[in-house]
Amino acid sequence: MRGATDAGAEETQMNEFDLVLPSSVDVREVGMRDGLQLEAPVPLEAKLEMLEALVATGVRRIEATSFVSPRAVPALADADQLAAELQRWPEVHWSALVANPRGAVRAVDCGMADLEYVVSASDGHSRANAGRSTAEAVAAVGEIAALAHGAGGSLEVIIATAWDCPFDGRTPVARTVDVARAAVTAGADQLCLGDTIGTTTPLRVVTLVDAVRRACPGIAVGVHFHDTRGTGQANALAAVQAGVTQLDASVGGLGGCPFAPGASGNIATEELVYMLEESGVRTGLDLDALLAAARVTEQAVGHELPSSLYRAGGRSVPRSAGGR
Amino acid sequence: MRGATDAGAEETQMNEFDLVLPSSVDVREVGMRDGLQLEAPVPLEAKLEMLEALVATGVRRIEATSFVSPRAVPALADADQLAAELQRWPEVHWSALVANPRGAVRAVDCGMADLEYVVSASDGHSRANAGRSTAEAVAAVGEIAALAHGAGGSLEVIIATAWDCPFDGRTPVARTVDVARAAVTAGADQLCLGDTIGTTTPLRVVTLVDAVRRACPGIAVGVHFHDTRGTGQANALAAVQAGVTQLDASVGGLGGCPFAPGASGNIATEELVYMLEESGVRTGLDLDALLAAARVTEQAVGHELPSSLYRAGGRSVPRSAGGR
Fold it and tell me: What sequence ranges are listed for the domain Pyruvate carboxyltransferase (chains A, B) (predicted)?
């Protein structure tokens, strides 16, 4: 069976491949919001300990909380109190998620003017998650943007189900692009593409990022991946290769899916930082400090976190061997 | 805070990025060997059920077992009996791992002539795993290659600790390249680079693959990744972008590390296939059949498998929503 050698000869005639990556990226820590929102409520004091540990990692963009109905999301019912504490860390660029203009008013009143607003690209998810169609959700962008801008802040529209919807199936690229364009026209300052249910894959990532950028020149496009099917870090790698420099991640991979028990949630911040820093992409985050923050987070939520890197004990290699 | 818009403008001036991928790759299923080797012994009958399920996935390269000391690896003590059953599936290209010429004789006597032989690129791992230095391990390649070739087969040398060693730290690229060159000179027909402890990252993958190919023109170079730190699929993506078309993976992600309880083992075949097929890379493997094979495997080993995709229930999306 020497045929393999011939296949090899073919391969080595290929052009060399260079992994072209940006020199740095900007990681946003979303564990405090997307991570905690489905957890049993964590006391404010424990959240402040998490924040202390997260700020110590060097991360300078943190999604702190959301101003939504306390009945809908009891875990984040303390948004007003939490917001009042954030001045402790003036070096951090804080953002907060809102679900409607009422939430935006509340956030601005709490001193948070850099807002995120979610629009589901699919009607099925939009109705299930927000009780209205995509078009109705888009219609609120202008008012929320005006509130943010009036307070000296900015509005990022996060497009949920940008690739796939649990109700409607695949989201056509043109549909997500239309939502992106409409959001920017209505006043969004930046966009984020959310793989809400963790189904997308590298080629689809690159295709959608490219399409949205063409449709919205001059607008930063970030990405928000879940690792539900093991492709989260590969998707992040593809996005970064495509020149995306704004990535969401959650400490310890916090952020489970209610419909997939045991499945991973957001991509883990420490895994993203490990992959990128070791590949020469600066994040400004310290891996050991991230593992310490994951420990604080694990104590706060009272259960194991899904991050493989965290469970493996970090970058370093235990001094006992096995396998190949 | 409108600064983000300026950053976006910069981004959109970048050239478009194309994810260039091969049209097809060749996945080798290693769950029967690397996956089972650290498990409590599974009865032969259950192994044959696993094989039946694996062959039904469409995979046409399977690492069936290893011919090593039954005392060292009791889980694979039935190699001779297993080998006798493989003629049931003549469509599959079987391989077996051997640790020395004695094992090669045994494999060939059992009708298995396509052999794999592991050489650790680092002395620390080589001594711990095989009781000899890297140079001593390389010295056996010629004899094993002659045995394989004499039986009409081939020899693949798997370079363990190709990137990192749990004892010696980082393996210099030049050291792994030297081992590769020496193995080929001694008669190896193909090579496989093993990330034994799951520490490597995309840029290092591309760098080493490129260096080994330059040193060994005409020789196929495969990759063997573990997902211990969440980077396994991203490493596979980088390798495939670099033109690698031979990848090892294990059904369900079977194959734990003895020194990192709870950490993932080999990259999961179904996650690799999902990522690649959805990105337009043909594998010949059927995802639903892989999930069925993972169920059979889970029953055989009697514990949960680490694969996120398997735990999430596959590609399809349950009809209930949450999160963004």
Answer: 25-291
Report percent pLDDT > 70 for chain A: 90
The H or E element that residue A119 is part of is strand A114-120
Q: Assess whether pLDDT exceeds 80 at residue B95.
A: yes
Task: Name the residue facing A5 among B129, B190, B234 (closest C-beta).
Answer: B190
pLDDT for B323 equals 38
Contacts of A112 (CB under 8 A, 6+ apart): A64, A67, A83, A86, A94, A95, A96, A153
Between CA B247 and CA B228 the distance in angstroms is 17
pLDDT digits (tens, 9 = 90+) for A278-287: 999 999 999 9
Averaged pLDDT, A127-149: 97
Residue B85: the pLDDT is 98
Q: Which residue of B has its CA nearest to A211?
A: B16
- Residue A192 annotated in active site: no
CA distances from B74 to A323, B38, B220, B269, B271 (A): 14, 9, 32, 24, 29
Q: Does A324 touch chain B (CB under 8 A)?
A: yes
Q: What is the dihedral of CA B204, B208, B209, B210, to 10 degrees?
A: 110
Which pLDDT does position A314 carry in this prediction?
Answer: 83
* All domains of chain B in start order, with CATH: 23-312 (3.20.20.70)
ipTM above 0.85, yes or no: yes
Q: Within an 8 Å CB–CB cutoff, is residue A90 touching chain B?
A: no
Amino acid at position A22, single letter = P
Residue of B nearest to A304 (CA): B262
What residues have CB less than 8 Å from B53, skipping those under 6 apart?
B289, B292, B293, B296, B297
- pLDDT the model gives residue B313: 86
Q: Is the pLDDT score of A196 beyond 80? A: yes
- A266: which strand partners? A226
B199 has a chain A CB within 8 A of its CB: yes
